[in-house]
Write a structure and sequence with these properties.
The chain is an alpha/beta fold and 206 residues long. The protein contains 6 helices and 6 strands; from the N terminus they run αβαββαβαβαβα. Bound molecules: guanosine-5'-triphosphate and magnesium ion (MG).
Length: 206
């Protein structure tokens, strides 16, 4: 346990660890990044990643993640949430090889999952890691909607431009789209630049 975390639990013995939610569009790499964080600091995993969007259909948690960085220390519970979209079209899953029945079921699960993401945002989390796939256009409607809700709730945010290992990634486009936020470019898949992410998490949520 880091010295600051120890000091905090000594001074505030009843204080619960912060609950930090990973939010963002489907396929942004939230589960991969949650697994990266949880593996690095607690040697556990959170859930299954997949190239098929709307893989995560329930919020999944890793408790007691102690991030101990020279910029600061913080103990958090990480909640990996279902991807949020402004619409779910079952036909989009045909391109991923799903038949009609499987596509309909996945679309229903995805819609329930979006509801669960919004519930955790409203009721559970004290801070947000907003994850964007830096290979995609950051100005998608869902990002303005979801970040707007997060900001209205006054929650602290770390904005992540994920997948920077990918040749098509453009972290600057993400930074340009959200000038109000400091953007941390990372790859949850390869671990590239996660040191800067841990510094940001410790500073923002510590
Ligand atoms: N190149 C690259 N691919 C990544 C990275 N992170 C995730 N991926 C890939 O992107 C796809 C989606 O990853 P997930 O972690 O399942 O994404 P998610 O945001 O949890 O998706 P939903 O649960 O559907 O909302 C998978 O094929 C991952 O392997 C990354 O940092 N770099
Ligand atoms: Mg997921």
């Amino acid at each position: 346990m880091g010295i600051l975390t120890r000091l905090k639990s000594f001074l505030f013995p009843d204080s619960a660890p912060a609950v930090i939610g990973l939010y963002g569009p489907p396929n942004a790499g939230k589960t991969t990044l949650a697994n990266c964080i949880a593996t690095d600091w607690a040697d556990v995993t959170v859930g299954e990643a997949s190239g098929v969007p709307h893989e995560t259909q329930r919020a999944q948690r890793a408790e007691g993640i102690e991030i101990d960085h020279e910029e600061g220390s913080v103990t958090v519970s990480v909640v990996d949430t279902p991807g949020v979209a402004t619409e779910v079209d079952h036909a989009a899953f045909f391109d991923h090889g799903l038949d009609d029945e499987a596509a309909q079921a996945r679309a229903r699960g995805a819609t329930r999952g979006i509801g669960e993401s919004m519930r955790t945002l409203r009721e559970e989390v004290g801070g947000v890691v907003y994850v964007l796939d830096a290979t995609q256009d950051p100005r998608a409607q869902v990002n303005d909607m979801l970040l707007g809700i997060v900001e209205n709730q006054g929650l602290p945010v770390v904005l992540v431009a994920n997948k920077v290992d990918h040749a098509d990634a453009d972290a600057e486009a993400v930074a340009d789209a959200f000038p109000r936020h400091d953007v941390v470019p990372v790859s949850g898949l390869t671990g590239e630049n996660t040191d800067a992410l841990y510094a940001a998490l410790a500073k923002r949520f510590g």
